[in-house]
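Worked Example 4.2. Consider the chain below.
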Amino acid sequence: MDIITAMKARKSTRAFFEREVEEKKIRLILDAARWAPSGVNTQPWQIAVVRGATKQRISEALLAARENGKQEDPDYQYYPKEWFEPYKSRRKATGLALYGALGIGREDSQARTESWNNNYRFFGAPVGLLVFLDRRLGQGSWVDIGMFLQNLMLAAESEGLATCPQASLAEYPNTIRHLLGIEEHMALVCGLSLGYADSAAAVNSYRTPREPVEAFTTWHD
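Applying the procedure from the previous section yields the following structure tokens:
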């Protein structure tokens, strides 16, 4: 698969088969991702691969936190405190597309909650990747992490694997750090579900649109 095809084919997958992912494939995509650029070659990414019982313990802990009404305490603020245009409309359209694909109405709060909770189950993917960054580094290292993640997702696409990057898995970082024995100075950036896509699942039947080049580009000769 050429790189442009992989870029256009990649999407956030929210239903996976239980089929295990071969460890050699996980290592292959990590080996490809590590060639991402980073400022002065800091290579700030630290990855925890979780599978099996460990992944299950994480899911159970996150779901318990939600059910008990525990306040989210992420290491950084991902979204704006107040939405504004055009981002507000894009966010709304994405939610409508998701719940529309699932046939969940606006008034069905229970179904919406259950659908959201699938985030903490890694959408049934057999592998979860948790991305950490030393919080003592500067903001530029967060840019580097983004480039690493894109490399990783494109490498997965080329190997027939699907992914879903998830800020939701970073809502309770202390819980995850405790379970994995990771030091407090390591910020949890996000999680990423990895596996073989269940292409027949309704939740995987839609794609979010992208703005045309003209909408975000200006030319200065």
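The two ends are 35 Å apart (CA to CA). The longest strand covers residues 186-195. Compare this with Example 4.1 before moving on.
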